[in-house]
Queue: 2 jobs
Job 1
Amino acid sequence: MPRCLLPRSLLLFHPLLAFLRVFFRGAPWHSVFTSLYDPAVNDLSLAASRLRQARSVVAITGAGISAESGLRTFRGSTAASAAELPRDMQALWAEFDPQTLATPEAFEADPEKVSRWYDWRRLGCLAAEPNPGHLALAAIERSVTASGGSFTLLTQNVDRLHHRAGSTNVVELHGNIIQWRCTSTHRVIDLPPEPFATFPPPSPFAKGALLRPHVVWFGEMLPPQALEAAAAAVQSCDLFLSIGTSAVVYPAAGFLHAARQNNAFTIEINAEPTAASRIVDICIQGSSGDILPSLANAAFSPPSS
C-alpha cells in the first residue's frame, strides 16, 4: 500500500518495506541500498529518482495549484464568502451558487449577469501570477524534453497560469477563461486585459451574436481534441503526476486509473488526502509550491561538489 511522506526517523523502522517498494517498481540497485541504509531517504527522493528516469511524463493539475496563486477554487466559492468580493459582485454571489451560473441555460436566460461574473473572474486570473509550483512544472518539462523525453501537462484550470509560467505542451481539459468565443461562429478571440465596456459583449464575428467564455460549462462536453490528446499521452506515459486535484471529477479523474493500468509510476501531490491517495505509488502531502520546486531540484539539479 502506498504511503504518504513520512518523517525520516520513521523510515528506520521500515527497511524491508522500503526495499520491497523500490525493488518491485524496478528502481536501480543503488536506490535499493540507499533506501535500506540511509535514513535520510524519503518519498521525495524516490519520486525524484523516478522522474529523472522517466521518458514520458504526464502531469494533471487541479484547482489546488491555482489557489496558491490567490485564485478562489471554484467548488469552494459560495455565497457565504460573498463579502470578500467587490461590491458590485456581492449581491450576485449572495443570491446564486457559482455552479448555477456556469451553465448554457444560465447564459441564455441572463447573458448580462453571467458575462459580468465571468469577466470579473477573467480579470482576476490576469491579475494573478504563476506561483513556484507553476514555474517548477515548466522547469520539469524543459528538463524532461531536453533529455529526449516527452512531457504533457493536463490541466482542469482555466486561468492559463501554466502558459504564463512557461509550460508549452498544455492540454486544457476545461478550456480557458482568458479567451472568449462567438456564440454563432464559435471562433475564438484573444481579449485585451481591460473590463468589457458592455455586458454581454457583442461578437465581432457575426451580427447579433455574443461572446461567451471559452470554458466548458456544466452540461457541456469536454473538447474532443483535448480528450484525445490527454488519452494518447496517458496511454504512453511511464510516470504520472496528480497535483492539486480532488481526483473525483470525471473524466479527468480517470486518467490516473488509466495510467496505473498501463504500469506508469504514479505520484500524488496535494494539500490533503484524496480518493487517489490510497492507490498511487507515492503520495506527498503539502503545498505544490513547496514540493514541486524541491522535486525538480532533486531530480535535475547537478549534484553539489
Job 2
Amino acid sequence: MGGRTGDGAEVVHMVSGPPADDRALGQTRAMEQRSPVTVSAPGRHTGRPRTLSARTVDAIAAAAGELLGLVVPVECAACGAPDTPLCATCTRRLRALTARPGRVEAHAPALVEASGRVLLPAVSAGPYRNELSLAVLAFKAHGSAALAEELAAALGRALQAAAGAAGTGTLLVPVPTSSSAYLRRGFDPLRLLMARVRREGRLPVKALWVEALKPRPKRLGDHATSLATRVLGTGEGSQKGLGRSQRRSRVAGSLEVRNRVRVLGQGSGVPRKPQAQGRNAVRGRHCIVVDDVLTTGATAREAARALEAAGAVVVGVVTLAYVPLPETASSDSPGTLPADIQRSEANGG
C-alpha cells in the first residue's frame, strides 16, 4: 500500500503492510520494467523556514566560490563548460535523473537473497551515471556549494519518498565517513549534504537526523588486513575494484553505535530542542540508514547490523545514487516493488 502527500503525489512506504511472499520478491530483477515512483515536489514537506543565518552562510559560501574561481579555474563537473561548477544544461539533466526516487535494492546483492527475498529495502534518488555520478565525484573532492544545492535537493526527495510510513520520530542515520577519507578531504560530504537538507527544510516530517554511528576502532587483526589490502593494490580508503565478497569482508564489524547519540536536525512536527542521549536512544526506534552511493549494499548491511545490535529496528536505506546492475545499466529509472515489502520478518534478516 502506498500513500499520498497533501498534493496527491505518491510516496514509497518502507514499512507498511505485511511482508510479501517469495513470488513477489522474486520479481526484483524485473524492476526496470515497472513504473518509477513519483514524489512530491521539493519543499512540499517543509521543516522550519530558512533563517537569516542559514542564508548568510550560503551567500558567504557562494561568494567564496566566486573568489576562488578567480584564482583557480572552475568548470562544469559534467561537461567542462567554463566558469560554473554545474552548467544550466547539466543541471537540468541531473534534475531529470533524480526527479523520481524509487526502490533499488535489486541492484544491491547484499540486500536481496538469492531467492529474491528482500533483506533491506532501498530507495535512491537516481542512477550513478552521467551528470549525477560526475557531480557526486566532484562534490566529494571539493565540496562545492553549487553542487551541494542540487545534490541536497535530490537527497531530500529520496528521504521524503522513503520515510512516508516509517512513523513519528523515525531516525535518519547517515553512514559516517572513514577516518582516512576525512583526513584526505578535510570534510564529510554526506554530513554537508544532510546539513543542507536540514537548512532548506527538506527533512521528512517528524523525522530526526541523528549522529548514531561511528567507525569502530581498529584492532591488531584489522591493521593486518588493511596492510594486506594495500599490498594487493586496492587502496585503504576506497572500495573501488573490490568484488562482492571482498566488500562484505572489508566492512564487516567496521561500525558501531556511539555512546552518545546526537540529534543534528529534525523535520516539522518534532518537539524542539531534543537532547543528546546514550546509545540506548536507538533501542526500539525505526531507523533509516543514509549513504551517498549504493553499490553492493555491503556498507548498508553493516550499518544495519550495528544499529540492530543496539536494539534499533532498521526499516531501510536511502542513498543519493545507486550503481545499476550491468544488465539494467542502460535504463535511467530506478524500479519499484510492491509497496507492502518491508523489513523481512520483523527484522529477523
